[in-house]
């Protein structure tokens, strides 16, 4: 889907940003989940994970427009 957002000249920028912006969450999420699990237990860690997933899905549905619909 990333490949369809920009023009041919903008495509490398979109690919680079999509891969770069995911990296901090990929690195920090397991560390934060482990910290939460150590402090409060696994149930809280899974609850925080589920809430984060729901929030991410809501942001995706509300804010990201599918570029294929406008062709």
Structure, explained:
The chain is mainly α and 71 residues long. It has one domain (2-66). Helix content is 73%, strand content 0%. The chain contains two helices and no strands. It has helices at 11-40, 42-63.
Count the beta strands.
Answer: 0
Name the assembly state.
single chain
Helix/strand-derived class?
Answer: mainly alpha
Distance between the termini: 14 Å
Low-confidence stretches: none
Cα radius of gyration in angstroms:
16 Å
Q: Write down the domain tally.
A: 1
- The count of helical stretches stands at 2
For the residues shown, what is the average pLDDT?
A: 88
Shape: elongated
| Helix content percent band | over 70%
N to C succession of SSEs: HH
**Strand residue content:** under 5%
Largest beta-sheet characterization = none
Attribute tags:
mainly alpha; 71 residues; 2 helices
How would you sum up this structure in a few lines?
The chain is mainly alpha-helical. It has two helices and no strands.
């Amino acid at each position: 889907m990333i490949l369809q957002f920009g023009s041919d000249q903008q495509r490398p920028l979109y690919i680079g940003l999509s891969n770069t912006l995911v990296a901090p969450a990929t690195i920090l999420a397991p560390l934060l989940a482990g910290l939460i699990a150590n402090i409060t237990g696994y149930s809280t860690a899974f609850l925080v994970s589920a809430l984060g997933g729901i929030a991410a899905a809501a942001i995706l549905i509300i804010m990201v427009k599918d570029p294929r619909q406008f062709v």
